[in-house]
Design brief:
Elements: H1 8-12, H2 20-34, H3 44-58, H4 61-70, H5 92-101, E1 116-122, H6 124-129, E2 131-142, E3 168-175, E4 178-185, E5 208-219, E6 228-231, E7 247-253, E8 259-262, E9 265-273, H7 274-279, E10 281-285, E11 293-297, E12 306-309, E13 325-332, H8 339-352, H9 361-372
Parallel strand pairs: 1-7, 9-13
Antiparallel strand pairs: 2-5, 3-4, 6-7, 8-9, 10-11, 12-13
This protein binds zinc ion (ZN) (2 copies).
Length: 373
């Protein structure tokens, strides 16, 4: 094997001075053209892999610069030869997912920074209305003092003595088939060709440091307990120019004293005494984010009935219609009665006799089950 290989620019059909935008456009066009789901030609899969591998390098300014300088050896990782990078990918699913999510490489070249996690606890009112939350957290950022070089004052770094500034180590090997040149990235300077001689004080030569940052996080209306928000690129900066990780914000919602939430519905439990249930009544029902609404209950309210107040629930987190407020009636049988009340009820009991079970009893329970399961 040798280090000769197809030129990445010609794989994408772009000139060496093509802009990042042109590289991206060429990649999209070719990836669509050769995607194995669409293109049944025999070499489509190989072409597709090559196009992806070329984009992998040329879409990343740092990798592209290394490729321009060192060729394939500069971007294949330590010990790699030629285009071994082509084989380093997962299945097509992986490649295409990355393409459509626009996250780029996670396999080769500079490692992305770590993802960070934070938790925001809200009241139900806040989950319903949404809000702008200011989050303060620590993350790793590129050091501004040395412009992430690690060298004090971002001064020019001396040539790496290990590889003599080449960024790669070449070893000539003999084999049955003749002489081979084994090219590996220099482990000391990691292909950079230069090393830190005077470490930056701010980052101790690391090129990055830990800082406290404040970020405004837009929490959309309708988030629920356990919802996770992804804030792209607000995690740690990657080492050596790698892309930043993401910040994941987990939402927690405190239980509410009055309302229970089931998906986009809010549930309000309304207690009624047996007289109110029998005669019907007008009641004021509180809402989560506005004036109370009046609910007219007709005579003969049963225990466990659900009355729907449209549009007073929780907005759907992806926009669109708002859920309902479900008023669940609880007919409360008195347990402590005065003498006068007992006498009234005794008369009533005689007058009413033994009731039949209401016809719609089953459907009431059915509705409750579907509303609360
Ligand atoms: Zn520094
Ligand atoms: Zn070196």
């Amino acid at each position: 094997m040798t280090t000769e290989s197809a030129d990445l620019y010609s794989v994408l059909g772009v000139p060496r001075d093509a802009s990042q935008d042109d590289v991206k456009k060429a990649f999209r066009r070719l990836a669509m053209e050769y995607h194995p789901d669409r293109n049944k030609a025999e070499d489509a899969e190989t072409k597709f892999k090559q196009v992806n591998a070329a984009y992998e390098v040329l879409s990343d300014p740092e990798k592209r610069a290394r490729y321009d300088r060192f060729g394939a050896a500069g971007v294949g990782g330590a010990g790699s030869q030629g285009f071994q990078g082509f084989e380093g990918f997962g299945g097509f699913g992986d490649i295409f997912d990355a393409f459509f999510r626009g996250t780029g490489s996670r396999r080769a070249g500079p490692q992305p920074g770590a993802d960070l996690h934070a938790t925001v606890t809200l009241d139900l009112e806040e989950a319903v209305s949404g809000l702008e939350h200011t989050l303060t957290y620590e993350r790793v950022e590129r050091c501004p003092d040395c412009r992430a070089t690690g060298q004090a004052g971002a001064a020019t770094k001396p040539t790496c003595p290990e590889c003599d500034g080449q960024g790669e180590l070449r070893r000539v090997q003999q084999s049955l088939f003749g002489q081979f040149v084994n090219v590996a990235m220099c482990p000391r300077c990691r292909g950079e060709g230069a090393i830190v001689s005077d470490p930056c004080k701010n980052c101790r030569g690391q090129g990055q440091h830990r800082v406290k940052v404040e970020r405004g996080v837009k929490v959309p209306a309708g988030v629920d307990d356990g919802t996770q928000l992804r804030i792209t690129g607000e995690g740690d900066h990657g080492p050596r120019g790698g892309p930043a990780g993401n910040l994941y914000v987990e939402i927690k919602v405190r239980p509410h004293e009055v309302f229970k939430r089931v998906d986009d519905a809010l549930i309000y439990d309304l207690p009624l005494n047996i007289a109110q249930a029998s005669l019907g009544t007008d009641v004021e029902i509180p809402t989560i984010d506005g004036a109370p609404v009046e609910l007219k209950l007709k005579p003969g309210v049963q225990h466990g009935q659900v009355h729907v107040v449209r549009g007073k629930g929780v907005p759907h987190v992806r926009g669109g219609a708002r859920g309902d407020l479900l008023v669940r009636t609880h007919v409360v049988t008195p347990t402590k009665l005065s003498k006068a009340q007992k006498e009234l009820l005794a008369k009533l009991a005689e007058s009413l006799g033994t009731p039949d079970i209401p016809d719609d009893d089953g459907s009431v329970f059915g509705r409750i089950r579907s509303a609360f399961s």
